[in-house]
Amino acid sequence: MTNHWTDIKNADLVLIMGGNAAEAHPCGFKWVTEAKAHNKARLLVVDPRFTRSASVADYYAPIRTGTDIAFLGGLISYLIENGKYQKEYVEHYTDAAFIVKEGFGFEDGLFNGYDAEKRTYPDKSSWGYELGEDGFAKVDPTLQHPRCVFNLMKQHYSRYTPDVVSNICGTPKDMMLKVWAEIAETSAPGKVMTIMYALGWTQHSVGAQMIRTGAMVQLLLGNIGMPGGGMNALRGHSNIQGLTDLGLLSNSLPGYLTLAMDAEQDYPAYIAKRASKPLRPGQLSYWQNYGKFHVSLMKAWFGKAATAENNWCYDWLPKLDVPGYDVLRYFDLMYQGKVNGYFCQGFNPIASFPNKAKVGGALAKLKWLVVMDPLATETSEFWRNAGDFNNVDTKAIQTTVFRLPVTCFAEEDGSIVNSGRWLQWHWKGAQPPGEARTDIAIMSGLYHRLRAMYAKDGGKFPDPILGLDWSYKVPDEPSPEELAMEYNGKALADLVDPKTNLLLAKAGEQLPGFALLRDDGSTASGCWIFSGSWTQLGNQMARRDNSDPYAMGQTLGWAWAWPANRRILYNRASADVSGKPWDPEKKRLVWWNGKAWGGTDVPDYKPDVPPEAGMNPFIMNPEGVARFFAVDKMAEGPFPEHYEPFETPIGINPLHKDNPKATSNPAARVFKNDMELFGTAKEFPYAATTYRLTEHFHFWTKHCRLNAITQPEQFVEIGEVLAKELGIVAGDRVKVSSNRGYIKAVAVVTKRIRPLQVNGQTVHHVGIPLHWGFSGVARNGYLTNTLTPFVGDGNTQTPEFKSFLVNVEKIAGGEA
Ligand SMILES: Nc1nc2c(c(=O)[nH]1)N[C@H]1C(S)=C(S)[C@@H](COP(=O)(O)OP(=O)(O)OC[C@H]3O[C@@H](n4cnc5c(=O)[nH]c(N)nc54)[C@H](O)[C@@H]3O)O[C@H]1N2
Ligand SMILES: Nc1nc2c(c(=O)[nH]1)N[C@H]1C(S)=C(S)[C@@H](COP(=O)(O)OP(=O)(O)OC[C@H]3O[C@@H](n4cnc5c(=O)[nH]c(N)nc54)[C@H](O)[C@@H]3O)O[C@H]1N2
Ligand SMILES: [Mo]
Questions:
Q1: Ligand 3: distance of its center to the CA of 600 in Å?
Q2: In the structure, what pLDDT confidence band is assigned to residue 600 with cuts at 50, 70 and 90?
Q3: Which EC number(s) does the record attach to this protein (predicted)?
């Protein structure tokens, strides 16, 4: 989230699109209710299904799954054509005025530089700003230049007329225009919309671009950095925000630092590439500090072994030969028989990843599998024949499975980062049962054994394991407190301010924040963005002061938010160019008081830089402003374009009928054997989408009798019109199949899913909850991911769980 849960109460308009917060985030949804009750906010929901969120909305509009870029691209055009954008904000705080290089272009659904064979854009050199001789980007503040970002964007989305968009999305035109018109009202400087989204946007082959389009709308409306505004990703698992913060993705390092590619063996070049110099005069470009964060991380990991002479152990870090080893890639490698062993920690991939047959087949090729989980998951029993639910030949599977029972979060102390980036300390609520041990104890045990083996036998590359600094008080199980202190970081030598000669921190002291981090080896910090969470004053995450002096819900004394206890990112943009809040009465967040920036939040800015200095609010970007034009950051192009899901019910992209290369995301990675497994609308005519229910949490709660009682049996949802066509009534058993397999479930026939008119045909949706499986105390069922396609988003590789094709048949003799 750019903002946070409590702040939603400050919204004038709430758009829930690409998620179902009332059901999947029922506690956080309270703040939508607050906004409605106390701020007269309106709630709009755009979803293929009339959800529990929709049931309490002021207005609901249906949309065909996978078409949000068209819906939002049309909105961008509508806002520009009708002058409904926050002009001052767009001119000063975005890249609208920046001039794009001459070679940049877009034709037949593709940007320039495409290589169809590789399915990528290897040459993105023209996806950038034109630079002047001074090295700075050229701008035209009058927005007249034909190649300024604003005009290119206007031109790009001029194709997205209401008729075109309605024809793609299936949203009736009047409903779509009603949603657009309401959203457009928040272009007034003091009026704010928040966008709440989750998997309805992320789980598509164009998911990251859907989110970008949402952010572009928010920038046009001047809603980023504002209280009650922002782009708010509602995170899933209780600590999934912490997972990304700590760099647990295969290509990241803690604090959103990035692992190097193979070609980046040269350490200074690795740092220089990430420490971008400002692209405009007077801008901060905060990533210039990259080297300080990186060296401090290396000091936390490798201690004394990391020295200036050995480039702080840079050579010890792995380098990537491909952009990332995401789960899809790894399972593909496993499926090819290229993986011997797999540690599966708190993850149930045969249930949660697409194409169960492929995931199960991959696990069967392993020599060994270790599952660390409190529960006996399907993954740990993938070899067990469970009849039609898991039809495998147990004898043919040779994988040795080790099951290590672990504690769960409620059985240990620690911190969890919520969607709003708050690190909240929690305390153990119960003793772990039986032989369960903590993840920390198991991982430490593994480390010590590996280390002993490397010390004894040598091996190919023992240095990083032998050189790791493991000076914890209890080496067999470092405490959560000690680890949290390590993330925060400490001074390794006395830190003196070079200008004033004042002592900033004594050697050994916890640091007050990341501003003190250095690249000379005198500081250590395991995750720079967490610096400030455990200072000399103690554990800031354990704070529970909810006083709110300005009644703006920022509660700076409650827990601790990264970065720097700042609650709303980019909050300098909540004030106009002169430093005054756009709405000084109801939307005051930070402002210039004549001497400094301050207010109800920690300013996301240099506190002593006056407005007239011309430093812009988006200090992490070298431009200083926010980007409509993504330069070369996105796989499929600088402006989001609508592409169909890989399994499309209409077979073509109505925007690019004559170019099949632009039907679906041209830059999404597809493995060969998966391409062949995509189905077509001829055999599988219905658009399917999968989702969760309040009563269950993924695949764990079927181990719990109470949850099993509240939602006892696997079902699928189909609309009344389709049910009638297929002769299905509520309670019948149906078979739902895709080109990868089938499931059988009870039919729920509902008015909540209506047929949509798309490109001259009727598109029906089928809704499939994901919670059932072949383990646990609930009535067994089929794994929903038997059906889903093995393809991910072009940037994140998040699977396309939300848009695929199925057929539905009534099972003979399966009458209610
Ligand atoms: N009770 C409960 N709560 C949970 C979870 C749980 O299992 N149970 N899981 C947690 C986790 S890990 C996560 S990630 C979050 C997920 O939170 P959500 O993303 O809110 O959960 P989903 O049920 O997957 O909802 C996605 C919604 O998107 C809609 N949708 C599908 N395709 C499209 C599309 O193309 N466009 C639009 N606009 N909408 C679309 C679906 O109809 C559905 O209503 O929930 C978390 N909360
Ligand atoms: N078709 C379809 N598929 C989906 C989705 C969808 O919308 N549609 N959503 C996707 C999303 S967003 C998600 S997040 C995934 C969820 O997929 P998974 O993460 O694979 O599913 P969970 O059942 O949440 O599995 C988490 C496991 O962690 C265990 N666990 C709990 N606490 C601890 C602990 O402290 N330590 C350890 N080691 N284990 C612990 C639990 O017992 C559980 O078995 O599913 C994805 N799959
Ligand atoms: Mo999730």
A1: 32
A2: very high
A3: 1.2.1.2
